[in-house]
Design a protein that fits this description.
The complex is a heterodimer. Chain A is mostly beta strands. Helices cover 0% and strands 52% of the residues of chain A. Chain A contains no helices and 11 strands. The chains are: A mainly beta, B mainly beta.
C-alpha cells in the first residue's frame, strides 16, 4: 500500500522567512496530493492541493511542487507569519478517472512549524 | 453551507464496551471517510463510504466497522474497546464525482474517545 514520509518533523523559522516541508510517496498510482494545516485543538484544514498532471500550484504565500519521477512533493510558505504556526500534514491518494476520489488519504506524520516573531 | 459535524465531541468508555460515532457530511457530499488520529501514529485512514457502500478500508482490525445511510450520514462503531483505541476520530466528506474540487476532503471537528 501507499506510504508517505514527511520531513522535517519540526521546523522553526523567523517571521518573514520561508519554510519548506518535503514529502515522498511510494505508490506510483497516487495522483492527488493535498496539504492540511492543523492548529492545536482544531480540525485539519485543507490549505492547498495538487494533482499529478500539474507540476506546481500557488495560492498567495503558499505553493506546492510535485516531482512525479522522484515521487516527492513539497510545500513552500513564503513571508511566514506567527499565525502560520501549526502542524502541517501532507497526504496522497488516487483519484479515479472520472474525477471521483478514492477517499483514502494516506498522511505523513506531520511537521510542527513554529514561526518566531 | 454548514460544515462537517460529528457527535458526540467527547466520549469516555471502559475497556470491553462498544461505541458508535456519528458524522454528518457537508450537504451534497456523497463520500465520507474516517480517520484515527493519535500522537504516536498520526492520522490513519480507517475506511471510506460512498453510496452506502464501503469503498476503501485501511489496516484496522474488524472491531472497527462503519456504515453510511441514504442521506450520506455515516456512523462508525468500535466493539470490545481497548486502551489503545483512545484517540481523536475524524471524519471527512467530499463531493465525489467528476469536476474540479470534487475530491477535496473537508474534516469534521472530531470525536475525542478516551478508553479507561
Amino acid at each position: 500500500g501507499e506510504n508517505v514520509e514527511q520531513h522535517p518533523s519540526t521546523l522553526s523559522v523567523q517571521e518573514g522567512d520561508s519554510a519548506v516541508i518535503k514529502c515522498t510517496y511510494s505508490d506510483s498510482a497516487s495522483n492527488y496530493f493535498p496539504w492540511y494545516k492543523q492548529e492545536l485543538g482544531k480540525r485539519p484544514q485543507l490549505i492547498i492541493d495538487i494533482r499529478s498532471n500539474v507540476g506546481e500550484k500557488k495560492d498567495q504565500r503558499i505553493a506546492v511542487t510535485l516531482n512525479k519521477t522522484a515521487k516527492h512533493f513539497s510545500l513552500h510558505i513564503t513571508e511566514t507569519q506567527p499565525e502560520d504556526s501549526a502542524v502541517y500534514f501532507c497526504a496522497a491518494s488516487s483519484v479515479m478517472r472520472d474525477g471521483g476520489s478514492q477517499g483514502n488519504l494516506i498522511f505523513g506524520k506531520g511537521t510542527k512549524l513554529s514561526v518566531k516573531p | 453551507k454548514a460544515g462537517v459535524t460529528q457527535t458526540p465531541r467527547y466520549l469516555i468508555k471502559t475497556r470491553g464496551q462498544q461505541v458508535t460515532l456519528s458524522c454528518s457530511p457537508i450537504s451534497g457530499h456523497r463520500s465520507v471517510s474516517w480517520y484515527q488520529q493519535t500522537p504516536g501514529q498520526g492520522l490513519q485512514f480507517l475506511f471510506e463510504y460512498f453510496s452506502e457502500t464501503q469503498r476503501n478500508k485501511g489496516n484496522f482490525p474488524g472491531r472497527f466497522s462503519g456504515r453510511q445511510f441514504s442521506n450520506s450520514r455515516s456512523e462508525m462503531n468500535v466493539s470490545t474497546l481497548e486502551l489503545g483505541d483512545s484517540a481523536l476520530y475524524l471524519c471527512a466528506s467530499s463531493k465525489d464525482g467528476s469536476g474540479i474540487s470534487s475530491y477535496e476532503q473537508y474534516f469534521g471537528p472530531g470525536t475525542r474517545l478516551t478508553v479507561t
